[in-house]
Amino acid sequence: MPTPPTPTVELTPAQIAEFHERGFLAIPNISPPAEVELLRGIFDRLFAQKAGRAEGAQFDMVTHDDDDDAPQGLPAIINPVNFAPELRATVFRTNAAAIARQLLGPKVTAAFEHAILKPPRYGAATPWHQDEATRVDANFDYEQLSIWMPLQEATLQNGCMQYIAGTNRGEVLPHRSPKSDPKIHAIECAGKFDPADATPCPLPAGGATIHHGRTLHYAGPNATDQPRRAYILAFEVPPKPSARQRDFYWNRDKQTAGLDRKRQWRKRGGIVIEFVRKLRGGLWRQPGRVVFEARRAVRALLKRAG
Ligand code: NI
Question: Which of 23, 117, 221, 223 has the fewest CB atoms within 10 Å of its CB?
């Protein structure tokens, strides 16, 4: 897949204004059909092989995920590009980076990426949440967005994205583990909102929704006979330490099997692989990101020591 030197999409001023006003935007095309077809094949391979499972990078978001062979409700892979380097050079990536710059300015950098599968009949719902609420360290100021692309049509029946407009301009609401069970990876919003206010965003394959890190969102279960695959690229302005104190206590108590696998893998030398991957991903070219990564590491160490 050759990377296009220049993006093939550009948001209009009206679309940019809509994003900042409502917190989300849907566009009909971010990746050409041939690329989407290739990506479908790559995703099906990565999920079938359970790529990254041993290092905690593939896990089920809604079950205890402690049995390698148990059926999964909502499997996800963090940074699938680490297991399929061909994902590095896509039209999707070039276009997504250009859109992120248009919306968050020239300082924006790639943050992470996510592959999500909703298995046919019945891949689980993705609970209502704000992405910023998943950050482990609440005491940074975050300015982030996610670009969500379905690899087949996304409909209400197979779990398209749904948003509550305007929540991007509010605060991070309280969240909790589903069923108050910290062994489940996902979080769900426990704050006050009305799901009846949701705007569903059905999309063609290779279209995209773009949402801000504060925008409350949800995706329903997959009730169809076909898998629902989505590829998400997240971008952010490198976060700076915040003057105000916040506590995302719902993340503190998490005890998932995936986190255990990640800890074990890091102890066995995975921490070196993680560092090499960050360098290969271009970290050294992004001074703002290097500073953020260093600050985050120091804060995590201090917290552990204290
Ligand atoms: Ni999300």
Answer: 223
**Span from the CA of 257 to the centroid of ligand 1 (angstroms):** 20
Q: How close is the Cα of 212 to the center of ligand 1, in Å?
A: 10
* Predicted confidence (pLDDT) per residue in 274-288, tens digit: 989 988 888 888 888
Q: Does domain 13-305 have CATH number 1.20.1260.10?
A: no
> What distance in angstroms lies between residue 260's CA and the mean position of ligand 1's atoms?
22
Residue extents of the structural domains in the chain = 13-305
Residues near ligand 1 ion, CB 5 Å cutoff: 131
How close is the Cα of 217 to the center of ligand 1, in Å?
A: 7
The pairing of strands 58-60 and 188-189 is unpaired
Cα–ligand 1 centroid distance for 158 (angstroms)? 17
Ligand 1 geometric centre to CA of 215 (Å)? 9
Portion of the chain with pLDDT greater than 90, in percent: 84
**Beta strands at 199-201 and 161-163: parallel, antiparallel or unpaired:** antiparallel
What are the tens digits of pLDDT across the range 168-195?
999 999 999 999 999 999 999 999 999 9
297 CA → ligand 1 middle, Å: 24
CB neighbour class for 127 (10 Å; exposed up to 12, middle 13-18, buried from 19)? buried
Sheet holding 217-219, edge to edge: 126-129, 217-219, 161-163, 199-201
pLDDT range class, residue 4, cuts 50, 70, 90: low
| Ligand 1 center to 174 CA (angstroms) | 15
